[in-house]
Specification:
heterodimer, A: about 220 residues, alpha/beta, D-Maltodextrin-Binding Protein, domain 2, about 30% helix, elongated, B: about 375 residues, alpha+beta, BirA Bifunctional Protein, domain 2, nine-stranded mixed beta sheet, four-stranded mixed beta sheet, about 25% strand
Amino acid sequence: MDRPIIFAIPKGRILDEALPVMKAAGIEPEPGFFDKSNRALEFATNRDDVRLIRVRAFDVATFVAHGAAQIGIVGSDVIEEFGYSELYAPVDLGIGQCRLSVAEPKDADPAEALSALSHVRVATKYPALARRWFAAKGVQAELVKLNGAMELAPALGLSRRIVDLVSTGKTLKENGLVETETIMDISARLIVNRAAFKMMSGTLPALVERFREIAGASREAA
Amino acid sequence: MSEAPELLPVGFRDRLAPAAERGAGIEASVLAVLASHGYERVDPPLAETESALVARSAAAVRTDHLRFTDPISQRTLALRTDMTTQIGRIAATRLSDAPRPMRLCYAGQVLRLRSSQLRPERQLTQIGAEIIGSDEIAAAREIVGLAIEALQAAGVTGITVDFTLPDLVDRLAETRYPLDADTLTAVKAELDSKDAGGLAALGAHDYLPLIAAAGPYHEALAKLEAQDAGGALASRLEALRAIAKPIADDIRLTLDPTERHGFEYQSWFGFTLYADGHVASLGRGGTYTLAHANGSEEPATGFSLYPDALADVLPAAAVQRLFLPMGHDMDIAAQLRADGWRTVAALSDTDDAATLGCTHWLNGSEPLAI
């Protein structure tokens, strides 16, 4: 197999937890990867047949779904948001745990409780997921897509509610918001391109198996 | 200021030279292979009544078709999204009394209502072959072999065939690892994306080994066998072995026992075709059941290829175009065409050979390279 495996990993939240797992699976990035001033986007690893790309979490899913990268690590929030049919998520890595929740101002008017409304306005980074969840509750949701700082939206009147990731709840609290409902629990998953998994059957399934063992072992230890 | 030129609707495109000709060539090569194995060509229409198209396809939902009202009959017509359902209609109606097993092949354009980021095109070429009247191992073996031969005839190398057992989960749910209907649906969805975490969350731990049992054919089969303590799958695994046996060594085989992607209407056996250099699958096939109007059912096996991607990436054959200057000898030109040259005749003295994409020009009776 002359083509290397392209491994996509997300910038930010999950990265720090993902690196030890990758190391355990026998993949270590070149030193340049850890150099903050390095502007390169693609990196070599200790394995000749594996290269790393570091992109935004949402783009990890897109790269892998299109087969531009064959394997990657990304939160289940992103997987669910896109619902790409070309993605496998064979291993729950058990890292990057948090939840996707609905939050609103803590002094919310009870007359505007979700159960009393047929239409709400919600700011979120996850419009597809949020729309599905509200639709399942029979609520027409008008989604405002934001790329960050969702917590500002209620205070500034952009929307009363937000749907966002919550890990400790500290950010919500600091912005005067309370979590009202959990949409889903989230953890980081190993994702693989469907076609690549079949075509690179000499290497990819073995790599997936390695991650599965590591995830299984850490779950037992926990 | 001039208006922006009108674009094609999303998902449609013009195919130009040389891809257009290559596409036609690929279609002809594939159809020649199918014909050489005794498959008879049928050519159903582009549009039918919506009810006819929907009735025979378990997979297609009503909203998948582009529909319009026929001004003549006042009925709703729909453009086909899949030719297999039309072959099924033909087999169940006008050819219902033809001797079985009946071998049919087809090629044509299908139209999808929606495009996605991953699959932007809405018009696709579909080529396929169906054996009506059998879903036995012998039929499956013939269809898999035929699909491989067809791809090879189209110039594809580095082929991977991925086997699957579409009704495996249903079978397991009925026998060894019982599930209620709701959980079964959820389990299938998680298996579809090979989501081990989601499967565990559903409490369907019995099904976790199925995710691990996907991979290179021999290893995957061994894993599946090791798991099949009760022997519920023994006959299926035996059949898989018989189908894979005659396949040549240069074809990579994989097994994914729970792959259901695109196998919504398949019965016990299915396969997907992949090739190096193509991110999407090139086609798929398997066994299925054909419903007749009188309520009876008939087994069938077949495959479909979607070869449009091939025309875009396969290397172009070097084409030699010969420029014929004004006043050339027409008999010589005719002879050269018979020898395989493609000629481009000048219509005026200002025509230039190189500008018109010619590689040679005719000097008297001799083609000279430009």
